[in-house]
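User: Assemble these into one structure.

Assistant: Restating your components, then the assembled model:
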Amino acid sequence: MSYRCQICGSTFKKPDGPTSSRHINSNKHKGALIKKGTSTSLTRERRISSSAKQPTDMIFSRLENLENQMKFVISKITKIESNSAQSSLTMTYSELERLEQQILKIIPRGDSISVDELLSKRQFKQTPFNNIEKAILALIDGQKIEGTEGKSKFKVDGYIGRLIQP
Ligand SMILES: [Zn+2]
């Protein structure tokens, strides 16, 4: 049975051999201890320097994450904004009715008007085309006016260029 020093690897016949002051003060043991200590502190230093790098890497990946989240949020906001821009084109029922009445007044009874002429009227300058289009289609649906193809840059429903009030 032999007893081994965990530091320098020396073997002893007696159990207290590795811990005897004679061995602990020996050059072999001291040398091994210093070597081990140095290598330990080196590993520690290396660990420190590599962990010193990590926070920077972490900051960069966190920044990258934040940047991606920002992009996501901005895209959401843009979507919401474009949706609310669209919803500003939607009218209440009474707004639609009022617009229908305005259009009816402009088209002379038994006569016709082109969509372009209608749009050029002062009272419709601020009205989105979508809204005017809806009102015209509602008037046609209600058989209050008729729509036909005709010479007009703006066309309702893609083909109606002239409006007739019979
Ligand atoms: Zn030893």
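The chain has a mean pLDDT of 83.
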